[in-house]
Amino acid sequence: KLHMLRVQAEEVPIDVLRQREAKWLEMLNHWDKWMAKKHKKVKDRCQKGIPPSLRGRAWLYLTGGKVKREQNQGKFQELDEQPGDPKWVDIIERDLHRQFPFHEMFAARGGHGQQDLFRVLKAYTLHRPEEGYCQAQAPVAAVLLMHMPAEDAFWALVQICEKYLPGYYSTGLEAIQLDGQILHALLRRVSLPAYRHLNKHKLDPIMYMTEWFMCAFSRSLPWASVLRIWDMFLCEGVKIIFRVGLVLLKCMLGSQEKLKACQGTYETMERLRAIPPQYVQEAFLVREVIELPVNEKEIEKEHYAQLRRWKETHGDLQCKSPPRMHGAKAIIAADPPRRQDLRQKPTIIVASPLARDGVNGREGEGGGGGGRAGVPAPADPDGSADGTALLRHIAESEESLSNGEEDTYL
């Protein structure tokens, strides 16, 4: 498992990783400007892969969870202190040990990882009592907790549930059924053989795509691929999830030769449950997903078509979900943040390596910044002055911020 966590850091040359870290620090220091004027560059960098050392912070900014947290200070603590609905508490507690049981964070029953997972999921049931808890939320929350503290993971989960995948976790699962039909309709353009095969065997999309979509592929792909897909998903929105599903269906059922082994419903389902490694390998999958020409306009067009059909056969939707936001740009445009909500407020502060190099005063000498000897003065919140020097230091350093450590928060 640790090897899986280190895959991306080992594959990217250390000098390239250093450069990417410096670029991401610059973007995070001026997030609103980058999203407003250089969103394509942000998207390109997400497609290349967010540096492991900054992934948690980047995800929090991409989802809008950072702004939500700042706008609702104290809210998570308030929810955390409440006992919760016994019905949901009982179900959540029974699910905790099922989430990444071989990961060091979640291996121990009652360990810190399981405790934080319980806190996040329970808080969500109190935040959205009309939705409560859905089992598919647990792996999503667990992935977030591997990269950020519980409060940040909570707000990122809120954004995923409400902006990226609205209605997915509501009673009746109407939204996921609709998206299953959208996926099937899009498949006709992407792979006609696969589309016809699934029609022939009357294989309802809900049978094979539910876990894929509701868990955002966190339980279906190798870890390195999960991280890369999430980098793109949280930047570009649900179209990435659709593209991954379409790529997998095309790879598994996209030719007559491949369909020879799928003579019936059972064989087809088994084939989709056991996807060969070459199709889910990080580099292959990311390249295929980026190149697949399916965009949000096509998804929305098909959404309205499927919604009309749903009303004809089932009547009105029982669960009225908010409109889906297609990625980070749409989220920030819908609710423009205040500049102070984007300022980074680290909870752990360590002496900067610049202090050893004579920046902001040397140890044992009176620094010009007015701080204690050897302790750098606080960086400018807008990323100027000391922030620029820190970026330069990172770019020139021989070590990455991640330094080969596991791609986890802890």
Automatic annotation (TrEMBL):
Q: What Pfam families does this protein's entry cite? A: RabGAP-TBC
Q: Where along the sequence do coiled-coil regions lie?
A: none
Gene Ontology MF: a single term: small GTPase binding
| Alphabetical keyword list | GTPase activation
Entry GO CC: plasma membrane
Could you tell me which residue ranges the Rab-GAP TBC domain spans? Answer: 49-237
Region (Disordered) residue ranges read 353-410
Q: Which InterPro entries match?
A: Rab-GAP-TBC_dom, Rab-GAP_TBC_sf, Rab_GAP_TBC_domain
**Gene3D superfamilies associated with the record:** putative rabgap domain of human tbc1 domain family member 14 like domains, Ypt/Rab-GAP domain of gyp1p, domain 1, Ypt/Rab-GAP domain of gyp1p, domain 3
Q: What is this protein called?
A: TBC1 domain family member 10A-like
What is the originating organism of this protein?
Answer: Salarias fasciatus
The record lists the lineage as: Eukaryota, Metazoa, Chordata, Craniata, Vertebrata
